[in-house]
Amino acid sequence: MSLTSRITIAASAMQTAALDLGSASAQLAKSYMTDLTDGTSAGQANRIFHDTRTLAASSSEDIDLAGVLTDAFGSTITLARVKGLIIAAAAANTNNVLVGGASATQFVSWNGGATHTVTVRPGAVFALVAGSADATGYVTAAGSTDLLKIANSSSGTSVTYDIVVIGCSA
To answer: Is residue 21 one of the residues assigned to a domain?
Structure first.
């Protein structure tokens, strides 16, 4: 089984202003793209996990990146390095989705600390992408730095989110 992937982040905008004798505008069109071929070196990845998940009010889950996840074909995958991570909170959520801060064996190479978290508001997307020249990515190790905590920020309602993790087995 092989994997090829492309992770793209793009922004476009047009800013305009009325002037005394006309108008002015400034346009932005910028995209950032990382293509990954099959493998475990720089510019490569060979494992992917993706899912839509729902957390009950005030609940959380620890996503074990090393040895428990299954791919679309039902095969167990173990990630040694993460090359791309996308968390997208459903627009219909009332509560936020919190990423990070597992109580033990935290996946921290992306955020620098065991208690650090990122808030993904309803309808928002969080993306973390290693560049195509980066052979290391964001390291994870079974039993020591492999848990990515995802939490519902409050009570009252559940939250739904999409998760995509692209990485390497070695």
So the answer is: no
